[in-house]
Write a structure and sequence with these properties.
single chain; 358 residues; mainly alpha; 2 strands
């Protein structure tokens, strides 16, 4: 199923990676020289943000800028408004991941030990006072907060229209996280609720809002006119992106994802995939699905839950929904007034991000 990434994605990623490195390196040196105890926590930002990632948010920001008539040479300039915005998105994403790993009590991220686990282990090894878990989580939360502040610094010169989009994005992200936490503990399995969480926790801030912010950098006085067509593409595609993520979270190969098999099933994530399975399940299947969210699930139990998801037709139904929403997104910008090259690139990105295994 995996589709090769568009060629332009690598060039965008290279520029953003270089900018992140040039921004973070002097900050790490500054604070490590101030107090050596800050060196290791501060280094966690670079370890996470430069340790992988597809750079999709910078890519959508870039093509939003071009779609709105922005100069490609400006988009490629670093430091510059578009590359800096792309780097800001990656630091904002890192902020969310640091906090998300604490909330999910995750052991691994991208195949490496999570920050809160790393520092809890350090606490135990040092035989320090207090509770190791609280120490590790406290470090991870504060490191995430630093990434949040740094993301703002990279957008310091952005126009007001871009800041409006940036602030709305951050509110939406936190709203999605809140709904996700509440839905997980309540065992909410309704499709409407699951799709709302899907859109606000990930979809909007991965596709729609980066497009809006890029367009606002290129044409701040026209963003209100440009936003509807960008949303007509960004919202269904963002939904499809997160739906693919949900499939990976339930069925992904740990060797590829860097996460335990069936991680979302152990955490009880209220996903559209699970909601569809619950809606279609008979009594016996529902008994199996009721175990979702039990952290003690072994691999055999996960395999049985996966079988039920397939048996109910939920996986096939979600795959069909992904394809439908991708088609809607591509159709929304075909023949639009957006820059033709940007339309081609956005169409290619739509296929790539929804036909991936990581």
């Amino acid at each position: 199923m995996t589709t090769a990434p568009p060629a332009a994605l690598a060039a965008i990623a290279d520029r953003v990676n270089a900018r992140l490195g040039s921004f973070l390196e002097p900050e790490l040196a500054r604070w490590a020289s101030f107090d050596p105890d800050l060196a290791e926590p501060m280094a966690e930002i670079g370890r996470l943000v430069l340790g992988g990632g597809k750079r999709l948010r910078p890519a959508f920001c870039h093509w939003g800028f071009i779609a709105a008539g922005g100069d490609p040479s400006v988009a490629a300039t670093s430091p510059g408004p578009v590359v800096d915005a792309g780097a800001a998105f990656e630091l904002m994403h890192a902020f969310a991941l640091f906090h998300d790993d604490v909330m999910d009590d995750a052991d691994a991220r991208r195949g490496a030990e999570t920050t809160h686990r790393r520092f809890a282990r350090q606490h135990v090894a040092g035989d320090w006072s207090g509770e190791a878990r609280r120490f590790g989580e406290g470090i991870a939360i504060l490191v995430g907060d630093l990434a949040f502040v740094y993301s703002d610094q990279l957008l310091a010169s952005a126009p007001c229209a871009a800041w409006r989009m940036w602030n709305e994005l951050r509110i939406e992200l936190n709203v999605g996280q809140l709904l996700d936490i509440v839905g997980s503990v309540r065992g909410d399995r309704t499709i409407m609720r699951a799709e709302r969480i899907c859109r606000y926790k990930s979809g909007k801030y991965t596709v729609e809002r980066p497009l809006h912010l890029g367009a606002a950098l290129a044409a701040p006085d026209r963003i209100d006119a440009l936003a509807p067509v960008l949303s007509a593409y960004g919202l269904p595609l963002g939904d499809a992106f997160q739906m693919r993520d949900d499939v990976i979270g339930a069925f992904g190969d740990p060797a590829v994802t860097g996460k335990p098999v069936g991680g979302d099933l152990r955490e009880g994530k209220p996903t559209p995939l699970l909601a569809r399975a619950v809606s279609a399940a008979d009594a016996a299947q529902r008994t199996v699905l009721d175990r979702v969210g039990d952290p003690s699930l072994d691999d055999d139990s996960i395999a049985r839950i996966q079988e039920v998801i397939v048996e109910t037709g939920a996986l096939a139904d979600l795959e069909s929904e992904i394809a439908t929403r991708v088609a809607m997104a591509i159709e929304a910008i075909a023949g639009s007034e957006l820059d033709a090259h940007a339309v081609d690139e956005l169409s290619a990105l739509a296929v790539y991000i929804t036909e991936r295994d990581l």
